[in-house]
Amino acid sequence: MSAIRPNRERYLLSLADELRSQSNRVRDLIGDAHWLSDGHHKEFLLIDLLRRHLPAGMIAARGFVVSASKPNAVSKEQDILILDAGDEAPVFNQGGLVITFPNIVRAAISVKTRLKNANVNDSIEGLCSLRNTCNGFVDPRSIWCGAYYFDVDPIVSRNPSTVFEYISRSMAANPISPAATPQNHPIPLGPDLHCSAHDFVFKLNHAYKSDDKTTVEARLCGYETKGLATAIFLGELLSHIAVARGSLDVEFGRVVESDSVKLIGDQSAAIQASHIPAPPAGAG
Predict the structure, then answer these.
(1) What DSSP letter does each residue of 230-256 carry, written as one string?
(2) Residue 202 CB neighbours (<10 A)
(3) Residues 96, 79: contact at Cβ < 8 Å?
(4) In which band, very low, low, confident or very high, does the pLDDT at 223 lie, cut at 50, 70 and 90?
(5) Which neighbouring-strand residues pair with 78?
(6) What is the rounded end-to-end Cα distance, in angstroms, of the chain?
(7) What percent of the chain has pLDDT over 90?
(8) Which residue in 232, 110, 98, 114 sits closest to 174, CA to CA?
(9) Nearest to 78 by CA among 27, 131, 37
(10) CA gyration radius for the chain?
(11) For residue range 184-221, what is the model confidence (pLDDT) as tens digits?
(12) Rounded CA separation 207/189 (Å)
């Protein structure tokens, strides 16, 4: 009998296949009778996958972020919040809904059925509302924001580069407020990652200050992933959580690396300048 050898890439591919194979069950049974139930089912599927991979002490649930000092400061409802409850619990955690202060938020995820223009805008609007609510309480870069789409619009399938325009236009329409206190690096322009379940990932590499104090511009990079998009999404999220907890990296991110991932395009985030706060008076 021949030996069965490990096949890590096939395992990673199965993460997307698992979600896609289950995502249409509600719709297959009730059609378009209740889109909200269909949407909540998709959120549950992704939450279930995340919970199996998140480190101990993390909570994944639908919810809101509120200010501890400004009662009227409330984010839009987030499809999934990732909270680090190792030292502090959310203010409210019941029935699958959480309400929390910004300090324990590690990530927020928007979940949509299809990668298309309207859904990209809706995702960016909701995720940017969270970053604006948290502004002044935590470093804007400490919260990872991602949008996950179970399927892809035919327009995007034919021409994935159209997503660059969707994202850039939506970020311009939903600006993130300047940081309340001076930051070492420019604030994020928008969500860190947009990901279809199977084929495409669009990653925003945030602007940063180089060693000579010049600003390196933000860049939006698109990739065709040959089925590895969900694994890349998970790896990016877990790497961010590891850094937030004081680690340098997680091994999962290295496992995801593959020659199957190809660059679609690499574009400057042209709206960068309008989001970078002016340096404080006297700053060099």
Answers:
(1) HHHHHHHHHHHHHHHTT-S--HHHHHH
(2) 26
(3) no
(4) very high
(5) 63
(6) 70
(7) 56
(8) 110
(9) 131
(10) 19
(11) 888 899 999 999 999 999 999 998 888 888 888 999 99
(12) 9
Q: What is the pTM of this model?
A: 0.87
Integer angstrom CA distances of residue 270 from 132, 144, 171, 265, 278: 21, 21, 10, 15, 17
- Which residues, at least 6 apart from 126, have a Cβ–Cβ distance to it below 8 Å? 75, 76, 77, 78, 79, 110
CB-CB contact of 220 with 204 (8 Å): yes
pLDDT tens for 18-74 read 888 777 665 555 555 544 555 677 888 999 999 999 999 999 999 999 988 887 889
Number of H helices, E strands in the chain: 8, 12
C-beta of residue 177 within 8 angstroms of C-beta of residue 128: no
Helical spans, DSSP H, in 85-218:
117-134, 154-158, 162-173
User: Which residue shows structure tokens 């502090």?
Assistant: 88
Residues 6+ apart with CB under 8 A from 3: none
Report the chain's mean pLDDT, rounded to a whole number. 85
pLDDT above 50: residue 93: yes
CB 271 within 8 A of CB 189: yes
Tokens coding 200: 């495409």
Q: Which one-letter DSSP state was computed for residue 60?
A: E
In 48-130 the beta strands, taken as DSSP E runs, fall at 58-65, 78-84, 92-94, 97-100, 105-115
Q: Cα angle vertex 77, ends 76, 82, to 5°?
A: 115
Decide: 98 and 130 in contact? Cβ < 8 Å.
no
Q: Range with the lowest mean pLDDT among 4-13, 76-85, 108-117, 275-284?
A: 275-284
Q: Which residue in the block uniquely carries the two structure tokens 């919810």?
A: 63
